[in-house]
Every structure is written in C-alpha cells, then in structure tokens.
Amino acid sequence: MRHKILVIDDEPANLRLLVRVLGSDYDTICANSGAEGLEMLKRQQVSLIITDQRMPGMTGVEVLQESLTLAPAAIRILLTGYTDIQALIDAINTGHVYKYIQKPWDAEDLRLTVKRALESYELKTRNQELVTELQAAMRQLENISIGTIVALANALDAKCDYTSGHSLRVSRYSICIGRKLGFSPDELKDLELTGILHDIGKIGVPESILWKPGRLDPDEQKIMSFHPIRSAQMIEEIEQFERVRLWVRHHHEHLDGSGYPDGLAGEKIPLGSRVVLVADAYDAMTSDRPYRKSIGFDRATAELRKFVGKQFDHEMVEALLSVVGENGENLNESGIPESYLGLKLSSIDPLQSGKQYLLESARRSQS
Ligand SMILES: [Fe+2]
C-alpha cells in the first residue's frame, strides 16, 4: 500500500524540502496554510499529516485538532521551529499528536519517524477493520438466532395452524404489560421471546389431542399439560435463554396454585410467567378460531377480572386493560409496540390460518 501524506507549512522552501525527503517513498500533497490543508482533507484520504506549528492564521496544533473530524484515522506529526513548550503541552493534552519533531530536522530521522508513524497507522486501520468484521459477525449471529426462533414458532404454526399468529400477538401483549410495570429493556426482550416460544412444546403433542373438538380426558389432559416443560426443554441448550426458559416453563401456573406444571402459587410464580399468562388468555379469548369465534372484548375483560386472585395477578390484568383502549382497539396491529427482536406481525398469512385444521376436521367427520 502506497501511503499519502499531507504536509502543511507556510514556507514554500520547507515544503519543497519535505517533499524531496519523502516524495520517493510516498505520495505527498502540500498545503501552504492550515485552512488549505483542511480543505484538502475534505476531498482526499491521507494516512499521515505533518504540519509546522508556527503559521499565520491557524497554528499547527489547531490544524491537527480540526483534522480529527476530517481524517480521524490519520497519524499526526507536529514540526516545531524551536522549543514551543505551550504548543507541545497543548498537543499532548489533546492527545492527537503521534510525535513532534524539532526543527531543523535530520532527513534520516524524519524518514524513520514517518516509517514508524505509518506502521502505527496500518496497525490502527487493521484493528478497526477487525472490529468492524467482528461487529458484522455478531450481527449475523444475532440474525441467525432470531431466524432460529422464528423457525421454531413457524413450525408450531404449521402444526397448530388454527392458532396462527397467536405466539407473536402474545409476545406483543406481554411487552405492553411489561412496559406498564416498568420492566427493563432486557426483560422486555425476554418477555417477547417467552411470548413467541411459550407453546413450542405443543409440537410434541399428538394431533388427536391438539385438534380434539371436545373436552380432553384426564390422560389427554396430562399429555397436554406437559407442553410448558417440553417448551422449556426445547430451548435448554441456549445459554442466554435461562430466564426465558423459566418464564416459559411456568406460563400456565395460576396465582392460587391450581395451575401446572409445578403448582406454584403467588410470588413463587416468576413475574414474566404471570405476564404471559394474562397475555395468552386475552389473545385466546379475543381471536377467532376455526371452531369458535372471539368472545369479544367486553366478555374477555370481564373474564380476566373475574379470575384475578385465582388465576391472574391483579397488577398484570390492570396493566393490560389500561393499554387495550375502549374496545381493545389499541391492540390492533398499529397500536402494538415495536418488536424488540425486529419481528413483524404481518409475517403471518391470515388466509392460511386454520386451513389445515378445517381440512382435518372435515376428513374426520367423513370417516
Ligand atoms: Fe401454553
């Protein structure tokens, strides 16, 4: 790589001398004043700036200071005609001068200093490139993780297509509640994940149970009530999901201890699980399913309030109801808060929702 060096000096003779010493190894561009040098930096990229300190208009220190925004990566060298203590203190204090060289300078010394300065520039740029590559790799990794989560949620939607979109809506309603209760951004992110992943364990529940139109018998109920454990098991290997795993496992626990899988009660139920339980119930009651219509906003609200203290936490229910609006209109697509993971509700195809379920029901009624 052939480096470009900007040299700034108000004395033409000094400039010629600098070019003679450095011109054979590097591309040099010259400016007669600080202002001219800064103009050049707007148009050209340089690896090194060498400037005289004593110049009319702007001093060398001032030029180097201003060059920080125009050429942040460039290395800066200051030439001082005599021991200008104040200029050196300023330059060192502002921390942007690689080295100062006292005039009159020796050609060999200058060449060596420039060589070292450019090695330092190369190291700095390579480091910056590595940081950028690392950041890109981390972004990619994050996208892969989110992609995997969506794939899991889609797998569930493909199997239980009569509840399509349920997980995404639960995750957004949970964010609404979490925000009202002052959850931290990290907790809100975990709430969104819990909403998406809470039912993925249903992938392991036989369709004869999942799609059974009537009540489940005790054996079937037992299999069904295993799904929170299975959901948690499915994300066991993901280290960062420790809290999500806990919240997922307990999303069917009731405040009075009558829920499953562990029969936890009151404060023993993790906060995030209590949030998702309310969001889950609200969405189940207010969305149309192929086998039944939504029970409507008013009845859903009444049901939630009726079971406060038994199933639901008072605070969670009130937090959700305070944001849903008069008739639940605040929780339509436009009113739902932004996803923390960049997921879109529109990724669900409403026309596909419940198709498989209806086909299967028709097949069963014929046989
Ligand atoms: Fe569930």
Task: Walk me through what this model shows.
This protein is elongated. It has 15 helices and 5 strands. Strands 2-1-3-4-5 form a 5-stranded parallel beta sheet, sandwiched between helices. It folds into 2 domains: 4-132, Response regulator (Rossmann fold); 160-366, Hypothetical protein af1432 (Orthogonal Bundle), CATH 1.10.3210. The model has no long low-confidence stretch (mean pLDDT 85). Helix 3 (60-70) links the parallel strand 3 (48-52) and strand 4. Helices cover 54% and strands 7% of the residues. By secondary structure, it is an alpha/beta fold. Bound molecules: fe (ii) ion. Fe (ii) ion (FE2) binds at residues 198-199, 227, 251-252.
Which descriptors would you attach to this protein?
binds fe (ii) ion, 2 domains, 7% strand, 367 residues, elongated, 54% helix, single chain, five-stranded parallel sheet, Rossmann fold, 15 helices, Hypothetical protein af1432, alpha/beta
Topology:
Layout: E1 4-8, H1 12-22, E2 27-31, H2 34-43, E3 48-52, H3 60-70, E4 75-80, H4 85-94, E5 99-102, H5 107-159, H6 166-180, H7 185-197, H8 207-210, H9 218-224, H10 227-234, H11 242-249, H12 271-286, H13 297-306, H14 314-324, H15 355-366
Bound molecules: fe (ii) ion.
